[in-house]
Amino acid sequence: MLYENDDLAKLVADMTGECCIELFAAYGVALKPCDGQFVNTEDLVFSGAIGFIGADVRGSCLLVGDPAPIVMSSPSGNPRDWTGELTNQLVGRLKRKFLGFGLEVQLTIPVVLSGVHLQPAATRKRSPRLFGTDTGSVMVWVEVESEPGFALGEEVVDGAGTEGDILIF
Amino acid sequence: MKRVLVVDDSESVRQQVTDALTGAGFDVVQAGDGMSALMRASENTFSAIVLDVNMPILGGVETLERLKQDPKTSSISVIMLTTEAQRSMIERARQSGAKAWLIKPVKMESLVSTVLKIAGAP
What pTM did the predictor assign? Predict the structure, then answer.
């Protein structure tokens, strides 16, 4: 039976936060970690979610953003579609970090939802990672469950590629 | 003019890649999933396919394998463009006949130069 492990959840949340900063930086948007809650207004926000599953672990990741940072990072004019791709690339980065610890996971296809007042229910122990920009906020939330006794191993050199790599066969 | 098929479930990525390849002189056709890609590939002549991996209906690696099994499409050069970096998956694609594996995000100039290297000038 899978259950929530606080140490693993914090580690994965930290990794996801790092991935989010790196991802937006790759598209020219600087995110600054900040405290507090995602400020909900009556304005539309965009969110994308992807699940991941491995031998002893499973979880899901949610990315929520105000329109401005989503649009600023986008090469096209469709923020809803781009939110799905950003979520895909966010969890792709997380997957590569997992590979560095010898953990292989499979990903689901991203699901996108736009709306107002979108907010995961923070628990007493954990809350979403919030980032600020000059024009709006971005939030990531990850939930992870594992088999009893599961822990990420020592970081290893996996040989997996990284963002921007081009492998010609 | 050489024709390239761009396959990605993200419209944003498809358009970004299409703009870059069109700017380089290629004729570009789009598909949003693996099954649509197989249909397009069998209906037209393509010099190269730029293929995402994590897609609905039919994933990119499975699409690659089907393309290579079909005599009508087996000679098309396939370039994988994906967030995936798992060695076993890259090796599976290489053994199935992919010509290159690009890990997103990739600069569009790099993507175009890879397509030029593999498919030749438009």
Answer: 0.91
